[in-house]
Automatic annotation (TrEMBL):
Location, primary (coarse class): mitochondrion
Role according to the record: Transports dicarboxylates across the inner membranes of mitochondria by a counter-exchange mechanism. Can transport 2-oxoadipate (2-oxohexanedioate), 2-oxoglutarate, adipate (hexanedioate), glutarate, and to a lesser extent, pimelate (heptanedioate), 2-oxopimelate (2-oxoheptanedioate), 2-aminoadipate (2-aminohexanedioate), oxaloacetate, and citrate.
Entry's transmembrane regions: none
Protein name as it appears in the record: Mitochondrial 2-oxodicarboxylate carrier
Family to which the UniProt record says this protein belongs: Belongs to the mitochondrial carrier (TC 2.A.29) family.
Solcar repeat positions: 11-102, 110-196, 205-294
Gene: Dyak\GE10632
Keywords from the UniProt entry: Membrane, Mitochondrion, Mitochondrion inner membrane, Repeat, Transmembrane, Transmembrane helix, Transport
Highest classification ranks of the organism: Eukaryota, Metazoa, Ecdysozoa, Arthropoda, Hexapoda
Amino acid sequence: MAILFEVTVRPLAHLQFLAGGLSGFIEIICFHPLDVVKTRMQIQGTRALHGEVVYSCPLDAFVNIYRYEGLSSLWKGIVPPICVETPKRGGKFLMYEYFKPYFHFGAPQPTPLTHAVSGSVAGILESFLVNPFEVVKITQQSHREKHLRTLSVVKYIIKHDGYGIKGLYRGITALVARNAVFHFGFFGFYNAIKDIVPSPENSTYDLLRKVIIAGLASSLACVMSVTLDMAKCRIQGPQPVKGEVKYRWTINTIRTTFREEGFRALFKGLGALILRAGPGGAMLLVTYEYLFEFLKSKYI
């Protein structure tokens, strides 16, 4: 029995990791420009600093980045996500599948709460792997004048701020909170809605059903977590005043933003976030499911 279990589980784990990694890579390449737009909008204040353009909406940010910085600027900071997101997404789906049996809460089969809690735990664990790459990525994305080389940014951060909570792990508490809330909503809503909406016999319509549900689930999860995402970007990005740390901790960042810029500022970047995470999340989750089933049929 032990030998049979080992032979069965190991190939599934490898296939889950591979399917998650490939789906993550495809999603990053397609939707990274919207991540740049989201970051720019979240770190800007209400007034322009040093003559910088203040973006009024995602489309305005997209147009102005292209106009003043060139097409390639829309892929600023893509190296860190490609380096970490591909294996990270594979690891996330692997952990998500691994934790599901532990969160049935007495139910014979996985419930939407099972998927929500499993996704949340997987999201929390991945935060500790991805945080240094997020700091580097946001530093690159926020720099408007030129393209910063990834290794140069890494060396600069380590030299001046170190590896810890002031350096490469700056904003880790905000990232953990953001990931916990987002993945709870994403996996929970997706599986809850998918169970309610009947599956059509036609495979094309079934694919469309899953894409729409995944996009809706991702958008709802964005609304739940956007304030934490805004705080994360402000903590991890360049501070408004050079030499002064204005944004250090999650709750204080949210309070300061609300006090100085009002309630709407807590949802900065939501439009770009939904544009990116809605179709991006749909592509990620549905691609993972179909790739995993395809790989299972080929190799199991």
